[in-house]
Amino acid sequence: MFREAQSTDFDAIMALYRQLHPHDPPITDGSDRVTFDQILATEWLHLYVLEQDETVIATTYLNLIPNITRSASPYAVIENVVVDETRRGRGHGKMIIAHTLQQAWDAGCYKAMLMTGSRRESTHAFYRACGFSADDKTGYTARPPRESTDADATRTRDEVAPVGPA
Q1: Domain coordinates in residue numbering, the chain
Q2: Which of 7, 56, 110, 130 can bridge 97 by disulfide, Cβ–Cβ 3.0-4.6 Å?
Q3: Cβ atoms of 59 and 13 closer than 8 Å
């Protein structure tokens, strides 16, 4: 069942995020819970889950962004798409993306965007099969400068590869 995340989904969603970013250091000051609650309380931000047998097995994060162009139509950014690693390859990813996109269209969005840091062809084929095109726009990211840490040294090339054409 596809649904909006609830406060009680916090632990399950965080477990999925640990699968997405296994090298992220654990947050121990409670700021993750504060941010989670802010997302749930914000009209234009939506965390969704896919639930099977009363277990959260996938999640997406839909950001609806007000916009002055395109007849003042909002656009969507989809982030943090995760299907539990033990349940991948069964259509759950396509299902949660399809439902998330429908939420964007129902909100009047004229486009939905997502970016992936993955260089795996299977990941790109998955997003193409979900209706996304890598040919419409070029995505760039910028990050604030910071000092290198030991955690950076353990990241794989797939995790730090730049987005866009090689």
Answers
A1: 2-160
A2: 130
A3: yes
3-state secondary structure of 33: helix
* One-character DSSP codes across 89-106: TSSHHHHHHHHHHHHHHH
For residue 95 the two structure tokens come to: 């299902």
Architecture of domain 2-160: 3-Layer(aba) Sandwich (3.40)
Q: pLDDT band at 151, cuts 50/70/90? A: low
Instruction: Label residue 15 left, alpha or beta by phi (over 0 means left) and psi (-120 to 50 means alpha).
Output: alpha
DSSP state letter for 85:
G
- Residue pair 113/67 in contact by the 8 Å Cβ criterion: no
Contact predicate 4/48, CB 8 Å: yes
What tokens does 28 get? 């121990």
Q: Give the separation between CA 159 and CA 118, rounded to whole angstroms.
A: 7
| Nearest-angstrom CA–CA distance, 22 and 157 | 14
* pLDDT value at residue 152: 52
- pLDDT for residue 29: 96
pLDDT, one tens digit per residue, over 41-50 is 999 999 999 9
